[in-house]
Specification:
Elements (H helix, E strand, L loop, with lengths): L2 H12 L17 H19 L5 H18 L9 E5 L7 E4 L3 E5 H5 L4 H16 L2 H13 L11 H5 L4 H17 L5 H13 L15 H15 L14
Parallel strand pairs: 1-3
Antiparallel strand pairs: 2-3
Helix pairs in contact: 3-5, 5-8, 5-9, 8-10, 9-10
The protein binds zinc ion (ZN).
């Protein structure tokens, strides 16, 4: 992949995982059982496309992701069997959410972190794409568009789930995600830290024109700072070191 292609992937994947905000509180558009099966099928497709397999090391990292993710998901509205996976590729500097509770974290984004709190922020954002029914909504749309029955989830496209969920959808995932992070005892400042790091990493990139389907990093940082102020959260709280095995 060229450097440009890698960045495209980074940006697309960093914004993945939510739905349409005004539909977020609506009832899930498909049964929870079907949603979980769709997510399982999408994870299989994703793993095939990326060509990674389980190793003893990846299993150990996944156990850590699961420990942190379960803590963050504790206060989510939907009780789902969340599964936190690792795609070890160093160029995958983001994470992606699939319906029903499948969340894949890239080896590249883990390599950029120093605190467990930052990992909690990434997982919180992806959990909310699922919790707000944004992923389920996308499955329903793909089924309608492709005339797919629940027996044909292997025909879903992983690309559909890598695209942002709209400006409002992404901001909602940030907002609700940080609430989960704070409820789990982590520092909300980690969200600012993480977004500012992405800003720093893209400092040399050609300025991208504003997108209608996702917020800019500036907008996301402003929102987190506003939330910290409005909710009176303590953003000076000491962060936990990242404890990758
Ligand atoms: Zn997202």
């Amino acid at each position: 992949m060229t450097r440009g292609a890698v960045w495209m992937l980074v940006l697309v994947l960093f914004f993945c995982g939510s739905g349409v905000f005004f539909l977020a509180q609506a009832a899930p558009p498909l049964s929870t059982a079907d949603e979980i099966r769709a997510g399982d099928a999408l994870f299989v497709l994703f793993r095939q496309s990326q060509g990674f397999a389980d190793t003893a090391e990846s299993k150990a990292i996944e156990a850590y992701l699961q420990k942190v993710g379960d803590k963050v998901a504790q206060n989510a509205q939907r009780k789902l069997p969340y599964k936190f996976r690792l795609d070890p590729h160093p160029g995958f500097r983001s994470a992606v959410a699939y319906p029903g509770g499948q969340i894949v974290v890239g080896g590249g984004v883990l390599a950029l972190m120093t605190h467990e709190d930052e990992l909690a922020v990434v997982l919180g954002h992806e959990i909310e794409h699922i919790d707000l029914n944004q992923c389920a909504q996308r499955v329903a749309e793909a089924m309608k568009k492709g005339h797919l029955s629940p027996e044909q989830f292997d025909k879903l496209s992983i690309e559909d789930f890598g695209n942002p969920y709209g400006k409002e959808g992404e901001l909602a995932a940030d907002r609700e995600g940080v609430r989960l992070v704070v409820a789990a005892g982590y520092s909300p400042h980690a969200a600012v830290e993480l977004l500012e790091m992405f800003q720093f990493l893209s400092r040399d990139a050609k300025p991208a024109p504003p997108r209608a389907d996702s917020p800019s990093l500036e907008e996301r940082i402003l929102q987190v700072k506003d939330e910290i102020k409005q909710r009176g959260w303590d953003d000076t709280k000491a962060e936990q070191p990242l404890a990758l095995p």
